[in-house]
TrEMBL record:
Its main location: membrane. Keywords: Membrane, NAD, Quinone, Transmembrane, Transmembrane helix, Transport. It is a multi-pass membrane protein. The chain crosses the membrane at residues 6-28, 63-86, 92-115. It catalyses: a quinone + NADH + 5 H(+)(in) = a quinol + NAD(+) + 4 H(+)(out). Belongs to the complex I subunit 3 family. NDH-1 shuttles electrons from NADH, via FMN and iron-sulfur (Fe-S) centers, to quinones in the respiratory chain. It is an enzyme of class 7 (translocase). This is NADH-quinone oxidoreductase subunit. Its EC number is 7.1.1.-. It is found in: Cell membrane; Membrane. The lineage of its organism: Bacteria, Bacillati, Actinomycetota, Actinomycetes, Streptosporangiales.
Length: 123
């Protein structure tokens, strides 16, 4: 087999060998491990504390909203660092400044919307 795809045969063979090694190790591990299930081992683990009640617990949506806002600000910070390096490059100053103000405007509108809907109040 000569041509463009001949070099990929080696990659495919190495991938198959690696897959066989991992699958073999998992099968050997499954065969050698002890298996003695007891009622204590089958209980749900809760940080070393015995579980109380059933497994259904509801969380308030406000925790997820604050997590989402954290992710938004983290992404904002990720975009600000490369912008700061490009801003200093010649010829990109006004364009990148306008783009960043548009981006920060969208972020500000989202925060204003959340504030007006009283999502950010912690009571």
């Amino acid at each position: 087999m000569s041509g463009y795809f001949s070099s990929y045969v080696v990659v495919l063979a190495l991938f198959a060998i690696g897959l066989l090694i991992v699958a073999g190790a998992l099968l050997v591990n499954r065969g050698l491990r002890p298996n003695r299930p007891t009622p204590e081992k089958l209980l749900t683990y809760e940080c070393g504390v015995d579980p109380v009640g059933d497994g259904w617990a509801q969380s308030q949506i406000r925790y997820y909203v604050f997590t989402y806002l954290y992710v938004v600000f983290a992404v904002d910070a990720v975009f600000l660092f490369p912008w700061a390096t490009i801003f200093a490059a010649p010829g990109f100053g006004a364009t990148t400044l306008a783009e960043m103000f548009v981006f920060l405007g969208f972020i500000a509108l989202g925060i204003l919307y959340a504030w007006r809907k009283r999502v950010l109040t912690w009571t």
